[in-house]
Amino acid sequence: xxxxxxxxxxxxxxxxxxACLAGxxxxxxxxxxxxxxxxxxxxxxxxxxxxxxxxxxxxxxxxLTTMDWLDQVNRLFPKETVERLERDAVERYQIPDVLTDPExxxxxxxxxxxxxxxxxxxHLMNPAVLALARRIVRTVVQDLVDRxxxxxxxxxxxxxxxxxxxxxQARNLDMRRTIRAxxxxxxxxxxxxLVEDVHFFGRTRRQLExxxxxxxxxxxxxxxxxxxxxxxxxxxLWGLPGIRTHLVAFDTEVVDLTADVxxxxxxxxxxxxxxxxxxxxxxxxxxxxxxxxxxxxxxxVTDFYEGGAPGGLVRAVRGLVEQGTHVLGLxxxxxxxxxxxxxxxxxxxxxxxxxxxxxxxxHLAEFVAxxxxx
Length: 374
Description:
Elements (H helix, E strand, L loop, with lengths): L2 H11 L14 H14 L3 H5 L16 H11 L2 H14 L4 H4 L1 H6 L4 H10 L5 H29 L4 E6 L9 H7 L4 E2 L4 E2 L6 E4 L7 E8 L5 H14 L5 E8 L3 E3 L7 H7 L8 H11 L6 E6 L9 H12 L3 E5 L12 H9 L3 E3 L3 H12 L2
Parallel strand pairs: 5-6, 5-8, 8-9, 9-10
Antiparallel strand pairs: 1-4, 2-3, 6-7
């Protein structure tokens, strides 16, 4: 092995692997990386439980502050590694300086992990720190909005028709007709088709009747990902023609956040994560917002762990379904849509007529677009 390969294994395995260096000291860069890794992972209590010797940096004992450590990892590691180290500092070791030191917050790169940590701890922050935390919230949320807005716009632009169009746009390409029109240009020796005549689909313009979209979001501590993406989804749907969006957060209480839907940053800063869960109460509140039952979609984003007996929740959902309202029970609303939920309660709601499953924000936008475009 080359010296860099040996140093890499030494960094992975820690002090116990000193012998692999055959008595040679690590390079200055490797020693700095070792000290930075030790500052973070050396505090793992599991090392003591397993009687594993703690790591020690190759340049001797280091008294790094959080700010020193942040500077060091950004200088010594690639961006992907820095993001992982910062995530472990926040989630795994809950190092308080990361979220309470204004200097650290001012330097750290905004990311989804920090956003979730800010939302969980914002009630503990003093005004100066909270102002810096908003930078993280705004940066990450704007990135989510920009990405989801593309999917939302595509969902609401109208269904493709079979009629040809002179408007040339890549997503409306009529591939089958284009290939058929250019078959005479096929070059067998090069196995290529020269395309000279390109054809496109037209799109029918949706005539939208007024619809209501009522999004009820569980704000218990385990639902932080869904709370974030619900706020972003509601912001992207806000103001679309023919649809009126409501956003309601709930635990054992119900808070109508519709007035802040157009500003997802302000909305998220008002959410209070944690507490119990009264889904039935939220559904009853949502039912009270419905103007025209057959022109309403009520989406409940929750893990379905109801705080009380599920009978009241089932009755509330069944009442909405029987009056013609589309009811969605979403076990997850984030980019991965990895659900974790009470399947028994979810099945009861499905039996009552709700559509129950897991959706990404983009899929939810497609569902809403399909319903309001009919």
